[in-house]
């Protein structure tokens, strides 16, 4: 019996008709589809860029323009380098830079070493690290004004805690904020206590990432505590140490809150006058926004140049 023949109506359509070729989607359609798929991400990105443009980039551009302008009776005129010349010939200009550099050096000696030592000590504890981390980070959670006023109370020459301790130890009392030789050191101590928590937690995270085998090998070689820190801890955390040093230098060069609240800004004999406080005086005491912008531009150029050199040297060391 012959097999029945397949009619066109019962034939396999995949065999009977050629495959259809779909035209490629236009580029605009692919972009629109990608935008719809990532609409939320693009929304957050646009919001972040908008915030940076309004609150960061625009003030920087406006400051750059103000540095070469002068506003009088509502009229803005271009004065070229006149604002920079005015700032340069101010007797407080060089004193502010000296005080700022002194604060930066003292803050590096204390504010850079103390958090690292605190992180090493906390890392040695096997139990209770969470409570110790909270204890170290607690000053950061306090409002800066409250912290500064607390230290102003501690520095009081009459009933302050520091002089009470000195009396108990039969040591001479000190005029912490009234002595031009001690005022800047007093500001540095308060600033270190206020800001060490964040750096200590960053250092602690870096320390906990060091393999324990390195310390075991150092112990087998007879290394003590300080040799282990010098030959294992510091080399293993060199990258984070260099980054934190750069960030701390940039932050300390812009110090304002601590000297302003502790010593009124200038301090005894101008010993705590910083560059940022001088900018504040030009803008809000002298109503010379052009000179304030010019001094801020000088500080910006200095920090940008220092950051560029630091990054260049770091790349050369890595290579």
From TrEMBL:
Entry's localization field: Cell membrane
Gene3D superfamilies according to UniProt: MetI-like
Topology within the bilayer: Multi-pass membrane protein
Span list, region Disordered: 1-29
InterPro entries reported in the protein's UniProt record: ABC_transporter_permease, MetI-like, MetI-like_sf
CDD domains noted in UniProt: TM_PBP2 (cd06261)
The keyword Glycoprotein is assigned to this record: no
Chain ranges of the ABC transmembrane type-1 domain: 97-310
Assigned protein family: Belongs to the binding-protein-dependent transport system permease family.
Name of the protein in its database record: Sugar ABC transporter permease
């Amino acid at each position: 019996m012959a097999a029945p023949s397949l009619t066109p109506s019962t034939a396999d359509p995949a065999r009977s008709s050629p495959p259809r070729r779909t035209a490629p989607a236009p580029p605009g359609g692919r972009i629109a589809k990608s935008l719809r798929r990532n609409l939320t991400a693009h929304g957050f990105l646009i919001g972040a860029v908008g915030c940076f443009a309004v609150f960061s980039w625009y003030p920087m551009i406006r400051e750059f323009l103000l540095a070469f302008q002068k506003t009088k009776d509502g009229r803005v005129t271009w004065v070229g380098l006149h604002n920079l010349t005015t700032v340069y010939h101010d007797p407080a200009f060089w004193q502010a830079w000296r005080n700022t550099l002194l604060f930066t050096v003292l803050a590096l000696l204390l504010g850079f070493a103390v958090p690292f030592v605190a992180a090493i000590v906390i890392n040695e504890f096997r139990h209770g690290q969470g409570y110790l981390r909270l204890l170290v980070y607690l000053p950061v959670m306090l409002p800066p004004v409250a912290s500064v006023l607390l230290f102003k109370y501690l520095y009081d020459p009459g009933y302050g805690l520091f002089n009470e301790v000195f009396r108990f130890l039969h040591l001479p009392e000190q005029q912490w904020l009234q002595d031009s030789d001690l005022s800047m050191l007093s500001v540095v101590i308060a600033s270190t206590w206020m800001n060490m928590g964040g750096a200590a937690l960053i250092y602690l995270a870096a320390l906990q990432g060091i393999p324990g085998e390195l310390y075991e090998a150092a112990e087998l070689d007879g290394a003590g505590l300080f040799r282990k820190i010098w030959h294992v801890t510091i080399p293993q955390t060199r990258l984070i140490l260099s980054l934190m040093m750069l960030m701390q230098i940039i932050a300390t060069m812009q110090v304002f809150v601590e000297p302003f609240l502790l010593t009124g800004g200038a301090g005894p004999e101008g010993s705590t006058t910083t560059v940022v406080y001088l900018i504040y005086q030009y803008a809000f005491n002298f109503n010379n926004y052009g000179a304030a912008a010019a001094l801020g531009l000088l500080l910006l150029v200095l920090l940008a140049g220092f950051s560029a050199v630091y990054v260049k040297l770091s790349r050369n060391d890595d290579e």
